[in-house]
Amino acid sequence: MTDPLSRNRLADEGSPYLQQHEDNPVNWQPWDDTALDAASEENKPIFLSIGYSACHWCHVMEEESFQDEAVAQRLNDNFVPIKVDREERPDIDSIYMRICQRVTGRGGWPLSAWLTPDGKPFYIGTYFPKDPKGQMPGFLDLLGKISDSWSDPEDRAEMKQRAEQWTDAARDAYETPDHDGESEAPGDDVLDSAVRTALRSVDDEYGGFGSDGPKFPQPGRLDLLLRAAGRSGSDPARTAATATLDAMANGGLYDHLGGGFHRYATDRDWTVPHFEKMLYDNAGLPPLYLAGDQLTNSDRYTAVVEETFEFVERELTHPDGGFYSTLDARSGDEEGSFYVWTPSEVHGLLDEPAATLFCERFGITESGNFERGTTVLTISASVAELADEHDLSVRDVEAELSEAHETLFAAREERTRPPRDEKVLAGWNGMMISAYADAARVLDPDYAEPAREALDFVTDNLLDSDTGRLQRRFIDGDTAGEGYLEDYAFLARGAFDLYQATGDVEPLGVALTLADTIVDAFWDADDGTIYFTADDGEELVTRPQELTDSSTPSSLGAATDLLCVLDGFVPDADYREIAGSVLATHADRITGNPLQHVSLTLAADRYANGGAELTIAADELPADWRETLGDRYLPSVTLARRPPTEAGLQGWLDELELDSAPPVWADRDADDGEPTVYACESFTCSPPKTAIEPALEWLQHNR
Question: What is the distance, to the nearest Å, from the Cα of residue 573 to the centroid of all Cα atoms in its chain?
Fold first, then answer.
């Protein structure tokens, strides 16, 4: 039988990230039983490298080290080298990233970890250059020193002891407090506490959070501030939120030529981004701009949403309806070269005054603001300023810029394109479905169609309707990986949001199916929590929970909030009881640092206040109702659509296989055949109303 460690096995993997390394001289192994068993049998330490296809520094480390014959020989001779795509195995990434952050005080990708044969880490870091650089040790030297230490019995014993300590620390980080049944969920002041903390961290000069770069969008914090502004009219919260929305939309984080957002800004003032484009950022940010539009009536925010969806449709949408994962930061061998410009390039493509206007509008100068004298486009002058400076009308400037935009966009399309990771991930697709569903409610009902197509694609390819179990990813007809909590929670939320936007019962059925699986496979009643991995998933050195928000919302917070929302849609459900138990279990964490646990904080607020509902009994949402609801910012308000008659409702109950009407629909049919709305807040409901405005006034008065 061929020794699996004698060759690079990544060509057999579906992940584009792993396939990027299939030609390395390193004998890379996927994370599987074959590789792990070989490590145990040969008593070799594991070198674990975790990254993702759009990761710039992952590419750098590959070019410097993993393509180097000397490095490869040292890895192949002394270690079992394993590559993991963090997007396919977020459970593995979560565990070792948590250890890295605890041990080194920082994290990021590539994540580099040396493990004992049974998977316990004894040395860990992120990017290492091949040779020493400044305070950074060289990767080749590290391999030699670690190999020598492993060969020495005394050193090996010390390494194993360190591995046990670090593994215990990881278990402690995920450990659930004793669930004695006496703890209580956080009270109704937890959101206010989080908002106060968020306001203290706001950068008043440049927007965003923190006083230095890099800067990430932090959508959870923005959601908090927008909710505070919408609920209480808080001017500081509104100012901080809109200043950050403006800064991100005007700076280099936003692609002013093609729409959509890059991953993060490398600097404090949002000028130079890290150029990768992730599906989850372009799913998480549009709902915030929609909320900002509802609060401020900003045409600019509407344009950002529309342009972002145009980007997603153009560059991240599968022909059959799902959404791809990422665009690389690199184009060819250079980071960002697809997106940046020089004055000579602009003047070579445009006549005057368009060339000068475009350069001044977007800050394109001879010195540039990026590498090689190039410029990342940022809004550097307003249209009114340009009109005044060049003695033109505003309309003329807008026309010149619009034509310039079309010309330069077409020219950019001829450049070397960033590679695309075409994994379709269930959870990330759920986030994008939610974004489109929100836009269907606020802007245009037609936005529901991409959401519907994506939900159909994911459920057709990744959901087993008989068992309610999800697989995580689809690519080129191949599916793989058991779904994680984020897949179930985010996809269920997307399906539920699509039901709210359209009044179609089918996506609601998907949401309820996935919620049932969350309870059956991820909820642990003894521990009082919902784990990131299913109870029959692979056993790792610890079973992770996702308590805090990172680049995506905390799946535990999302699942808990989902159960609160869906409780009213299932007769005799214990969803709310489970949510309360989770919040009570983690109450000390939430109240101690609500900003670190934004999604759990939002779930705690919904649980404490009971949530608000607008049950609408109608075949179709009246056009004026749709317009009114689209104009109003109604955070935490559920639109519980239902047929107008009991006969119609019975058809829905049959489709959902429910024996009786759930509380949110029961005894709430249309009044005299007219579209009827029932407003409920904190377990109290208004009389039925056949106009939307009185219902919203009642809701506002009782909130």
Answer: 29
